[in-house]
Amino acid sequence: MKPEQLDDWRIIPRLMMIALIIMNFRVIEWFMALPAPTLEQAGLLSVMTGALTGAFGLFLGSVEKDTKKTSDRKSS
């Protein structure tokens, strides 16, 4: 297997996105189970959701760049 093939599969970024999604889901479950959430707890939920949104945006942007690189590699 060539290193380029392994890079094309993007295993590490995909695993990191799955981990972020699971962590965010668990925080939302925890927050919804609280009887009376405080401002600090709501802030944690907000930060986690914002982090997931930012990471997802970066992930999608990098997929677009990688797609261009892959098409350039195949055409040469």
Can you lay out the helices and strands and say which pair or pack?
Elements: H1 3-9, H2 11-33, H3 39-75
Could you explain the architecture of this structure?
The protein is elongated and about 60 Å long. The longest helix has 37 residues. It is mostly helical and 76 residues long. It is built from three helices and no strands. The two termini are 20 Å apart.
Compute the CA-based radius of gyration. Answer: 18 Å
Helix content: over 70%
Task: List low-pLDDT spans.
Answer: none
User: What gap, in angstroms, lies between the N and C termini?
Assistant: 20 Å
User: How large is the share of residues in beta strands?
Assistant: under 5%
Total number of beta strands: 0
The major sheet is characterized as: none
Mean pLDDT reading: 86
Secondary-structure element order, as H and E?
Answer: HHH
Number of helices: 3
Structural class: mainly alpha
Dominant shape: elongated
